[in-house]
From TrEMBL:
Any coiled-coil regions, as ranges: 152-186
Name this polypeptide is given: (apollo) hypothetical protein
Coiled coil in keyword set: yes
Annotated keywords: Coiled coil
Length: 245
């Protein structure tokens, strides 16, 4: 398709279907170039639409001369510009994708900022309401932990004091054991020394109301030993064999 078939921007895009054909000159015009909303395109409009150049050259029907008449068609696009109006400069009329993108981004930014603001307010209110009981509970737990920590520190100090006391008692106990052992040895030595002058007599008959000192002196006379009662400090039996006496 040649460029002569286009009456607007001379596009080489033959596959574009966003155009309308003038019924007079049969040239194609993009909807965007003519600022025509595609939603208003009907079969009647396609069958009767004429481009601005052809409308401008169309003679008046009331006068039989070649005076051009103005097209009274009021088909309007998004910006409510008449289709029959003279073609404007494409650079001023066309809206680029960058312009649309900037407008959309601006609107989206405003909407998102408002949405984030409301979301933030709702979120802060929600957490403030939900976190308050948790804060109170955490405060109670903190007080309990402080009390338990104080009790633990007190028990720890008592335990340290008890350890010191036990260590001291163990040391004293060890010293006392040594002292008792030494005293036991000394007592044993004293007993052994005190028994150096002892005399043990066995198999001496036992009688009721006996006088042991008299019995010992008589035994000494029998064996020919001179022993008086004054020489005897103490005399006793170790145990009674006959329980009847």
């Amino acid at each position: 398709m040649s460029n002569a078939n286009w009456g607007c921007c001379f596009s080489e895009n033959d596959n574009c279907d966003e155009f309308i054909v003038c019924v007079k000159c049969e040239r194609k015009y993009h909807y965007a170039c003519m600022i025509i909303d595609r939603k208003i395109i009907t079969s009647d409009l396609l069958a009767t639409w004429a481009c601005p150049q052809c409308v401008h050259l169309q003679p008046k029907t009331a006068n039989k001369d070649n005076t051009p008449v103005r097209n009274v068609s009021t088909v309007r696009g998004n910006k409510r510009i008449a289709i029959g109006s003279p073609q404007s400069d494409p650079e001023k009329v066309n809206i680029s994708m960058e312009d649309i993108r900037q407008v959309v981004e601006g609107v989206m930014d405003d909407k998102m900022n408002d949405l984030f603001k409301r979301f933030n307010e709702n979120l802060v209110g929600f957490f403030a309401k939900e976190i308050k009981p948790m804060r109170d509970e955490l405060s109670s737990i903190k007080e309990s932990l402080t009390f338990i920590n104080d009790q633990y520190e007190g028990i720890k100090k008592e335990n340290e004091a008890s350890k010191i006391k036990v260590t001291t008692l163990e040391k004293e106990n060890a010293e006392l054991k040594g002292t008792v052992h030494a005293l036991a040895q000394r007592v044993n030595q004293i007993e052994q020394h005190s028994r150096q002058c002892n005399l043990e007599l066995q198999n001496v008959p036992e009688s009721r109301n006996e006088n042991l000192k008299t019995m010992i002196t008589k035994l000494s006379e029998v064996i020919g030993s001179s022993l008086n009662e004054k020489d005897i400090l103490n005399c006793t039996r170790t145990g009674k064999m006959n329980r009847e006496y």
